[in-house]
């Protein structure tokens, strides 16, 4: 082999070795960290995904040039999710997968990319590089349940539910328990729409519930369509995940707001410092992960006071939305007098409490 | 009784976009063209009407904008398939994807906005009648327009010469051509008309059903409209049957859940689609009915020197 070729080969070899070591270096302080977000809906849903993106924006504002963020919207839970997460994992250091249905794909991809960190929202599968996080939305449901129980005049509350997963069932139970504590004759009418996001279907469900006599609408779906319908029909509703007041200036009593910013900032901080560890975070009103929008002026002061003292109680730890005596729907005893539900049962909740009508689809 | 009237109203509102899109597509298919771009044209109509209504404050301007915008998309489809002789199925699918993406792009800065409610008919005596008022006289004018269009289409195809020529174009384009009718022009006009109707259906979604704009808000209704045309065996009056059954089952299953009947919700969600498939299968069993009504030259490219 001639000298020229040999020389070129040596240079190439050195370069190759250099690139290889470069790629193996993790935690390099000079390298800008890349954080990715996988969203289940559009950023413009003014609901669930909107708030996650607000969290992302908070991270951008806080860390400026030290990090780069990317997001992919409307990734369907299913086979395509795995593709999207894999693509993101290839060149990002931290990936947030923001929907329950991403649980299996996230775990699977995490095994193949053990240098990348994953944060999965509202799931329960963890590993060394997969952390879980969720918010105690049921605390917010407790508060809006109090308001609903106090405000309803037909004693029928309409509930638009998405999928029969523990988180949704927990929300229904928490809201019902609070509403019936204020108003024992209250009745929950529940429609399962089998989607997180379909404005047309959510609107139809809202109308059906209103036609059936509900005068307050609660939702566990991601768009503001139910609020729009409530506004149109002149009844009350609660916003979900974001403040939906612009869709229901007269209709909105309050909203449960998911506030992901502080948590996201904390996790990215740990990523940059190299101290990121898998964890399981379930924050609530106390850590500010769950917030309540301003309560409407239509709510009577006595109810507002009830909500405020409940909120203080939850934050201080004196009040837990699932405190016995509570029976299951079939009449069997779940919690004894004064007994507080433990997180494990709550996370796997698959039963209605006594008083909720209907069956949970399976 | 009020509840049944309310359910009826819900059904009409859910079905009208399907009626509009399907009746337009019926004319297109009768002329021999298979337009799979209905979904894309519907959503362009939805976004265009929303934006223009928001900017001008006038629902009428929004409706006109929807007709023009989706008509333009239809013109693209028409030129590609009639003059450039592209494959109709592929072109239609491509335009659906294009329409969906374009609508999301244009509509980005318009999410989070609410429109004022669409005016409902309020004829003093008639609308206040106890039951009939609610059943017949309390809808927005687009509902009445959709009914008119269907009847007009029926009369057009059955009683007018132009309608007959259209059917001829779809049944045997070579004969129509040798009689001196411009097949391409007729098909192009039908395509634009069909696109405009689909746009109108889309406008109904974003102006009346949920007065807001969200990406992908058509949620597959364009495809349902296509199925309804076949369901109706290309007979205009049967479009009502198809659309109202589909819309009807969709709404009723929600009410059934709200009442508390213990049928698994997932099965209820499937019901509209299953019933549609069943009826389609049932109809295709009658070969005569199909032979008489189905356009023979559907999806066949017409080549000529003109």
Describe the structure.
The complex is a heterodimer of chains A (362) and B (306). By secondary structure, chain A is α/β, with parallel strands linked by helices. Chain A folds into two domains: 30-135 and 260-283, Rossmann fold (3-Layer(aba) Sandwich), CATH 3.40.50; 137-250 and 292-347, Response regulator (Rossmann fold, 3-Layer(aba) Sandwich). Helices cover 41% and strands 19% of the residues of chain A. The mean pLDDT of chain A is 90. Chain B is mostly helical and 306 residues long. Chain B has one domain (2-222). In chain B, 74% of the residues lie in helices and 0% in strands.
Helix content of chain A: 40-55%
CATH topology group of the largest domain in chain A: Rossmann fold
Largest sheet descriptor of chain A:
6 strands, parallel
SSE string of chain B, helices as H and strands as E: HHHHHHHHHHHHHH
Share of β-strand residues of chain B = under 5%
Rounded Rg of chain A:
24 Å
Unreliable stretches covering 5 or more consecutive residues of chain A? none
H/E topology pattern of chain A? HEHEHEHEEHEHEHEHEEHEEHEEH
Q: Based on CA inertia axes, which overall geometry of chain B fits?
A: globular
């Amino acid at each position: 082999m001639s000298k020229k070729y040999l020389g070129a080969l040596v240079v190439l070899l050195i370069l190759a070795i250099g690139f290889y070591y470069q790629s193996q270096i993790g935690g390099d302080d000079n390298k800008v960290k890349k954080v990715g977000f996988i969203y289940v809906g559009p950023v413009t849903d003014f609901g669930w995904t909107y708030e996650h993106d607000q969290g992302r924006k908070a991270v951008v504002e806080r860390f400026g040039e030290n990090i780069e963020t990317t997001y992919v919207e409307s990734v369907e839970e299913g086979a395509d999710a795995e593709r999207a997460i894999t693509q993101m994992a290839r060149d990002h250091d931290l990936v947030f997968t923001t929907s329950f249905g991403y649980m299996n794909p996230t775990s699977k991809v995490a095994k193949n990319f053990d240098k990348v960190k994953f944060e999965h929202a509202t799931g329960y599968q963890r590993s060394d590089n997969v952390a879980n996080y969720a918010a105690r939305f049921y605390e917010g449901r407790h508060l809006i349940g109090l308001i609903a129980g106090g405000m309803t005049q037909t004693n029928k509350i309409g509930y638009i539910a998405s999928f029969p997963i523990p988180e949704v069932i927990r929300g229904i139970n928490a809201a019902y328990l609070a509403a019936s504590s204020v108003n024992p004759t209250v009745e929950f009418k529940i429609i399962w729409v089998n989607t997180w996001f379909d404005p047309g279907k959510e609107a139809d469900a809202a109308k059906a519930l209103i036609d059936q006599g509900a005068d307050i609408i609660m939702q566990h779906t991601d768009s503001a369509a139910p609020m729009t319908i409530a506004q149109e029909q002149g009844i009350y509703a609660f916003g979900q995940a974001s403040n939906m007041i612009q869709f229901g200036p007269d209709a909105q009593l309050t909203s449960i707001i998911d506030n992901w910013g502080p948590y996201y900032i904390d996790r990215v901080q740990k990523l940059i410092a190299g101290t990121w560890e898998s964890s399981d975070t379930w924050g609530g009103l106390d850590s500010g992960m769950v917030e309540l929008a301003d309560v409407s002026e239509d709510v009577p002061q006595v109810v507002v006071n009830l909500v405020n003292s409940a909120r203080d109680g939850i934050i201080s730890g004196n009040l837990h939305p699932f405190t016995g005596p509570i029976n299951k729907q079939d009449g069997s005893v779940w919690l004894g007098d004064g007994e507080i539900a433990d997180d494990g049962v709550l996370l796997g909740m698959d039963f209605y409490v006594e008083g909720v009508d209907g069956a949970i689809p399976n | 009784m009020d509840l049944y009237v309310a359910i009826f109203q819900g059904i009409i509102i859910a079905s009208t976009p399907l009626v509009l899109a399907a009746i337009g597509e019926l004319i297109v298919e009768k002329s021999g063209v298979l337009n799979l771009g209905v979904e894309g044209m519907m959503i362009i109509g939805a976004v265009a009407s929303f934006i223009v209504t928001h900017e001008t404050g006038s629902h009428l301007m929004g409706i006109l904008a929807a007709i023009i915008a989706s008509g333009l998309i239809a013109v693209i489809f028409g030129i590609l398939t009639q003059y450039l002789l592209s494959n109709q199925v592929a072109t239609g699918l491509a335009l659906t994807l294009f329409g969906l993406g374009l609508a999301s792009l244009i509509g980005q800065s318009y999410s989070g906005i609410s429109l004022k409610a669409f005016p409902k008919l309020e004829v003093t005596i008639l609308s206040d009648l106890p039951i009939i008022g609610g059943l017949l006289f309390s809808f927005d004018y687009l509902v009445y327009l959709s009914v008119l269009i269907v009847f007009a289409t029926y009369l057009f195809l059955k009683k007018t010469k132009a309608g007959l020529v259209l059917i001829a174009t779809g049944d045997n384009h070579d004969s129509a051509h040798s009689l001196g009718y411009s097949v391409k022009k007729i098909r192009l006009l039908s395509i634009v008309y069909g696109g405009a109707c689909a746009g109108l259906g889309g406008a109904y979604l974003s102006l009346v059903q949920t007065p807001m704009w969200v990406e992908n808000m058509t949620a597959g209704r364009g495809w349902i409209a296509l199925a309804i045309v076949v369901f109706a065996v290309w007979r205009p009056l049967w479009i009502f049957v198809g659309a109202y059954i589909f819309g009807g089952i969709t709404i009723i299953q929600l009410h059934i859940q709200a009442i508390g009947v213990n049928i698994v919700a997932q099965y209820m969600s499937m019901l509209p689609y299953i019933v549609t498939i069943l009826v389609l299968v049932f109809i295709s069993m009658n070969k005569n009915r199909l032979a008489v009504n189905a356009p023979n030259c559907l999806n066949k490219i017409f080549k000529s020197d003109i």
